[in-house]
Amino acid sequence: MSARILAAVAVLAVAAPAFAQTAPAPTAPAAPAAAPTEADLEAAGEAFGTDMQAMSSELTAAKTAAGADTAKANADADAIVAKYQPKADAFATLISAFMATQPLPPEAQAQIDAGLATIRDTPNKVRQGVMSAPAAATPAPAN
């Protein structure tokens, strides 16, 4: 069971740059229970992924709207990341609470901590991916 959770954390860490590709509508985060279950984690993980995709879409729109104004693009990106950072922190906290209920060897804690740090940094990674991507080419007007 704990191996599945660690694998899920690793998948989220690796998939973070891919969130810059698509953006379905954001979902409300799941309210964590006193002792989260695997089902809670799965639901929260799906919601987190959807939220990161929505953030990517917002960043892309802000970057496009700012055009060549880098200062505006960065200020807008700062505001967008600040809006989504609490969701990353809440998801990491939920995983941490779940992992605290699992019988794990002490050496697993370093891997868990690294995975939690990666989740907390996901909004910044998504931002880096979107903001460093080349601007979409605008099609030439038809005559």
Set out the fold topology:
Elements: H1 2-15, H2 38-66, H3 70-100, H4 108-132
Helix pairs in contact: 1-4, 2-3, 2-4, 3-4
Brief descriptors of the model:
143 residues; mainly alpha; 69% helix
Q: Uncertain regions: pLDDT < 50 for 5+ in a row?
A: 10-23
Q: Could you tell me the mean pLDDT? A: 82
Number of domains: 1
Rounded to an integer in angstroms, the radius of gyration calculated over CA atoms is 17 Å
Question: Which strand-content bin applies to the residues?
Answer: under 5%
How many helices? 4
> In one word, what is the shape?
elongated
Quote the distance from N terminus to C terminus. Answer: 61 Å
Briefly note the structural class of the backbone: mainly alpha
Q: What is the percent of helical residues? A: 55-70%
Let me know the largest β-sheet: none
Helix/strand order: HHHH
Number of strands: 0
Structure explained in plain terms:
With 143 residues, this protein is mainly α. The chain has one domain. 69% of the residues lie in helices and 0% in strands. It contains 4 helices and no strands. The chain has helices at 2-15, 38-66, 70-100, 108-132. α1 packs parallel to α4, α2 (38-66) runs parallel beside α4 and α3 (70-100) packs antiparallel against α4 (108-132). The longest helix is centred in the middle third of the chain and has 31 residues, at 70-100. The protein is elongated and about 50 Å long. Residues 10-23 have low confidence and may be disordered.
